[in-house]
Predict the 3D structure of the following.
Amino acid sequence: MTQNQGPAASSPRVIRLTRPSVVVLCGPAVCGKSTFAARHFRPTQIISSDQARALVCDDERDQRFQMQAFALLHFLIEQRLDVQRLCVVDSTALTTQARRNLLELARKHRVPCVALVFNVPLEKCLERDAKRERTVGRPVIERQYQFFEQAAAAIKQEGFDEVLELREEELEKVEIEIRFRPVQRPAVDLRRPESRPLAPRPAQAVAGGPGASRNARPVAVQRGPAPPVGLRPGEASPAAAAAATGAKASIAPAPAKPAAAAPPAAPNEAAPAASPATPAQQEAQPAAAAPPTQAQPPAPASSSASPAPAAGTEDCKT
């Protein structure tokens, strides 16, 4: 990035820039920055604060969204520097913080940062503003010109790789040369980082299941005997039924012991007299049933003699 002034006064001034790099245009409003950038750079190489403001809020003169507009401007700069492109920042760059932000972006991406200072008289700026359709206004231009004088005195100590001053009579005689010098970025180690060996996975309960180890032994599964052929589902076999019956019999409760019988009374011992029953007890007790009579076995039939009359009976024949 050098400038060449020939021996003749009419010879053009040559400014050599490199790509990628950040070129900061510093100057008040209506000093000729946008016209100079459009004459010497491609439209895609120019990143304008007015254009960023228009993209954010549809009005490049709306100063309420300065933070969002410059956030977009810085984002575009970073994206272009990532792909080795030239960035010409078209903004006033009148404050120290605004210039420091651009310097930090250039240092972050390891590219040069050049400042082009437009040293144009205040009267010339006011004259150009009066010819515009949309004017900026004399108070705004005068205030910005005060900031510009402070910036021009301090910009050479802020860390720019090169600071070039452009006067009014030189703006139309400058030539820009751009040379491509790719930035050597640090190599990225794509090797996989070393890590500790992973512990083997535990064997699964079922061999061959999901996540089972290849060296895992098959696990034996205990199963019951197969049901006999011919039985319906849920029906027990005869052997199983007998076994179940025997198991129930073995655990059946023991029969109750019979009550002890009263000892027989002595031969000549009278039975104890029962206490007489009350009238209420007599009514409650049912009448004692008469003992059933025993049927007499029939006499054997005789063919020769008639049966003899029973003892104690009289002959009814007259």
Notes: Helices lie at 33-40, 49-57, 66-82, 96-108, 122-130, 138-154, 238-250, 279-284.
